[in-house]
Design goal:
Strand content: 25-35%
Strand order of the largest sheet: 5-4-1-2-3-7-6
Oligomer: single chain
Radius of gyration: 33 Å
Number of strands: 28
Distance between the termini: 88 Å
Largest sheet: 7 strands, antiparallel
């Protein structure tokens, strides 16, 4: 009886199990046939793109002579006088150094001559006459540069020019045979999710093809003043630098420049300089051997929500002019501190980076319309751009031993101790005579002013776009803004050298 009751149970279990297995197989078959979209495996055109452009992608080989440092592998260890190992090590290191022996203890001698180091990167040919584009950091400080074609031909290269700000370089070679060149595409037409192909020389392996998608556009990673990278998950590694990023038409839409990786290998976060930027830089390097960028002559900062509220700008946008160069193009055009640039030469300006990029890309000497917002109203200023100069200005602070000055009379407002400018205060905080306003002598650590990084020695020049000369002036303006229902007050603040910035503080 027991056996009789068990048999049907097993039979039913086998039937049910068979149904389940059948349904599972059907589900898997249906997913394979219908559930997986074709593009999940990548587009079919990648092989065609690679075949079309591979001969235009090159390896860049560089060599550099560097000074050898003491204390390396050829340095004799320091041993106590009379050590039984002294004679052994002395003979060993003399034999390694060759005749003459050199000197002990890591001192510079014949054992540490200058040595050559080699490195490899990537690049691509843009002109059959032998013009090659790569990254500046690939060839920086190199004594010799060679371009290695896809078939292994090695050709010495001449440096045409570099641009450190965009990390681009142009080389010239004399081809022994006809070359294959690639053309630039329009990076502005890229969409998130578009397939891209990277070809380069990762880890010195030679021509390597990888594919991925556009993960982001206009990425600012604070690596330079004109950041606007294409982010991709195409595998990019060390050695890929300077190599091209292609769209599926075989056009170069970016130059692979850097990766984010804790290990040094690809983790799917790579960045390429967009072709729109590359084309302008390459054209100028080929024509002039250097970059000639446009210059507006202003210092700018972001328009925060608080600053926008103070200036009656809705929504917060544009680039706030914090200072105007007396010798720059903006000054005669009538642009002033406190103006907010919202459009330049017909292009919208959403933030300071937008303005920096569009000004730099505009031809020197071109007259452009600059749309600003001043006291809530739009105005158009015509500016003829100058040329950006790039001198390295280093100002050393001069220390002076001054007797302790008398304690100034101060007034508190907005979490600040404020005092009228005097000769003693100018000396104490190294404030130039040209700077006018009310000096900050102390900042409450728990105040909004401290959070906005105001510090002793800062000078408040204007409050709500009106000049002030005493703490009483500031307090009067703050009280009036409170009555008017304002939530914040806009301060124009100068440092000791006269460099201005705007700071919005809460008046609540």
């Amino acid at each position: 009886m027991t056996a009789a009751t068990i048999a049907p149970s097993r039979s039913r279990r086998r039937v049910r199990l068979g149904v389940r297995i059948g349904l599972a197989a059907l589900a898997v078959g249906a997913f394979s046939a219908f559930g997986t979209p074709a593009h999940a495996r990548g587009p079919d055109g990648i092989a065609d793109v690679a075949e079309k452009v591979i001969d235009a992608v090159v390896n860049i080989s560089t060599s550099q002579t560097v000074e050898a440092k003491g204390g390396g592998s050829n340095t004799m260890p320091q041993l106590p006088p009379g050590s039984p190992f002294e004679e052994f090590f002395d003979d060993f290191f003399k034999n390694r150094r060759g005749p003459g022996g050199g000197s002990k203890g890591g001192e510079r001698g014949d054992n540490n001559p200058p040595r050559k180091t080699n490195s490899l990167g990537s690049g691509f040919i843009i002109d059959t006459a032998g013009v090659v584009v790569t990254n500046n950091h690939v060839i920086a400080d190199a004594d010799e540069i060679h371009v290695i074609l896809n078939d292994g031909t090695k050709i010495k290269a001449e440096l045409v020019g570099v641009d450190k700000k965009t990390d681009l370089a142009v080389l010239k070679i004399k081809p022994p045979k006809p070359l294959v060149a690639v053309k630039f595409g329009d990076s502005d037409k890229l969409r998130l999710g578009d397939w891209v192909v990277a070809i380069g020389n990762p880890f010195s392996l030679g021509g390597t093809v990888t594919a991925g998608i556009v993960s982001a556009k206009n990425r600012d990673i604070s690596s330079g003043p004109y950041d606007s990278y294409i982010q991709t998950d195409a595998s990019i590694n060390r050695g890929n630098s300077g190599g091209p990023l292609f769209n599926l038409d075989g056009d170069v839409i970016g130059v692979n420049t850097l990766i984010i990786s804790p290990s040094g290998g690809s983790i799917g976060i790579g960045f390429a300089v967009p072709s729109k930027t590359v084309v302008g830089v390459v054209d100028q390097l080929r024509q002039f051997g250097e970059l000639r960028r446009g210059w507006l002559g202003v210092r700018i900062q972001s328009v925060t929500d608080e600053i926008a509220e103070s200036l009656n700008i809705k929504p917060a946008r544009g680039a706030l002019v914090a200072g105007v160069d007396d010798k720059g193009p903006a000054k005669p055009a009538g642009i002033e501190p406190g103006d907010v640039v919202v459009k330049f030469d017909g292009k919208d300006v959403k933030d300071p980076k937008d303005l920096s990029r569009v000004v730099a890309d505009t031809a020197v000497g071109k007259e452009v319309d600059v749309v600003i917002i001043r006291k809530g109203q739009e105005e158009i200023k015509k500016v003829t751009l100058g040329r950006l100069q790039d001198p390295d200005k280093v100002q050393a602070a001069v220390k002076t031993d001054e007797p302790a000055p008398e304690k100034p009379v101060t007034q508190k407002a907005l979490g600040l101790d404020l005092a009228a400018l005097s000769k003693d205060l100018r000396t104490r905080y190294k404030i130039k005579e040209s700077v006018k306003g009310v000096v900050v002598t102390n900042v409450d650590a728990n105040s909004d002013a401290a959070e906005k990084r105001l510090s002793a020695g800062d000078v408040i020049v204007e409050v709500a776009q009106e000049a002030v000369s005493s703490g009483a002036d500031i307090q009067k303006r703050v009280d009036q803004l409170k009555k008017d229902g304002k939530k914040s007050v806009l301060l124009l603040v100068s440092n000791g050298d006269g460099e201005l910035r705007f700071v919005a503080l809460s008046v609540q």
